[in-house]
């Protein structure tokens, strides 16, 4: 069963604005990852945050994790048109190798 | 490195036909997996393998078969295609058995079953 659930399903912003996406999950996790998928392409790994970490940065990306609320957020600062894509959170539990994906947030950044 | 490659990119089948989706990686990764992506459903795990000769079922294994005879290749077989198997299929690989290693995805195979 799918573990993660992203919110919102779709987000439209203008270039230069910040974009925030949220992910909620159901069971205890080992780590949480965020992926980007451009239209018609495969998924690209963006960032991984471990269950004992609260915040992580990578370039214009900032990820937070709140294990007490079973939720994570992905912040993209100073968005660009090239950030237009679908963003997925995925979790790994200690009991398996599989990544459990959410349904994704579709981000549109207009010039 | 080519990374994870998948063939074909597109395929149209008739109900009842069988076919094999190919997946190969040149990163010497032990872990490989197959996902299907349907509109509004995200990615769902079909089968995975933690090394040559070892495979296991994921969330939606029915109608699919896999084998792993080499580290590099992980083909997915559709035994008797059904319209419900119309989807985009992604293969992925990950180095080692650590849960902290990122997964690399192939470009996908878009399959239509008529």
Task: Annotate the secondary structure layout.
The complex is a heterodimer of chains A (111) and B (114).
Chain A: E1 5-7, E2 10-14, E3 19-24, E4 31-37, E5 43-50, E6 55-58, E7 61-66, E8 71-76, E9 85-92, E10 100-101, E11 105-110
Parallel strand pairs in A: 2-11
Antiparallel strand pairs in A: 1-3, 3-8, 4-5, 4-9, 6-7, 7-8, 9-10, 9-11
Chain B: E1 4-7, E2 10-13, E3 19-25, E4 31-38, E5 42-51, E6 54-57, E7 64-66, E8 76-78, E9 87-94, E10 104-105, E11 109-113
Parallel strand pairs in B: 2-11
Antiparallel strand pairs in B: 1-3, 3-8, 4-5, 4-9, 5-6, 7-8, 9-10, 9-11
Please give a structural write-up.
- The complex is a heterodimer of chains A (111) and B (114).
- By secondary structure, chain A is mainly β.
- In chain A, 0% of the residues lie in helices and 55% in strands.
- Chain A has no helices and eleven strands.
- In chain A, strands 2, 4, 5, 9, 10 and 11 form a six-stranded mixed sheet that branches. A five-stranded antiparallel sheet of chain A has the order 1-3-8-7-6, with no helix packed on it.
- Chain A starts with a strand and ends with a strand.
- The model of chain A has no long low-confidence stretch (mean pLDDT 91).
- Chain B is mainly beta.
- Chain B has no helices and eleven strands.
- Chain B has strands at 4-7, 10-13, 19-25, 31-38, 42-51, 54-57, 64-66, 76-78, 87-94, 104-105, 109-113.
- The model of chain B has no long low-confidence stretch (mean pLDDT 93).
- Classes of the chains: A mainly beta (111), B mainly beta (114).
């Amino acid at each position: 069963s799918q573990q993660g659930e992203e919110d919102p399903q779709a987000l439209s912003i203008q270039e230069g604005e910040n974009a925030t996406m949220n992910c909620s999950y159901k069971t205890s996790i080992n780590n949480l990852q965020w992926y980007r998928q451009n239209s018609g392409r495969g998924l690209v790994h963006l960032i991984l945050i471990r269950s004992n970490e609260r915040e992580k940065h990578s370039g214009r990306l900032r990820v937070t994790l709140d294990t007490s609320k079973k939720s994570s957020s992905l912040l993209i600062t100073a968005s660009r048109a090239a950030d237009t894509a679908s963003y997925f959170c995925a979790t790994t539990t200690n009991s398996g190798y599989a990544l459990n994906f959410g349904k994704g947030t579709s981000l549109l950044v207009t010039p | 490195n080519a990374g994870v490659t998948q063939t074909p990119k597109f395929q149209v089948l008739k109900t009842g036909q069988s076919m094999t989706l190919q997946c190969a990686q040149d990163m010497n990764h032990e872990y490989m997996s197959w996902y299907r992506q349907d509109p509004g459903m995200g990615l769902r795990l079909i089968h995975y393998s933690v090394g040559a000769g070892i495979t296991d079922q994921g969330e939606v294994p029915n109608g699919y078969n896999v084998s792993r005879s080499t580290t590099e290749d992980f083909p997915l077989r559709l035994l008797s295609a059904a319209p419900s198997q119309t989807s985009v299929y992604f293969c992925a690989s990950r180095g080692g058995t650590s849960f902290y290693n990122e997964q690399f995805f192939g470009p996908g195979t878009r399959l239509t079953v008529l």
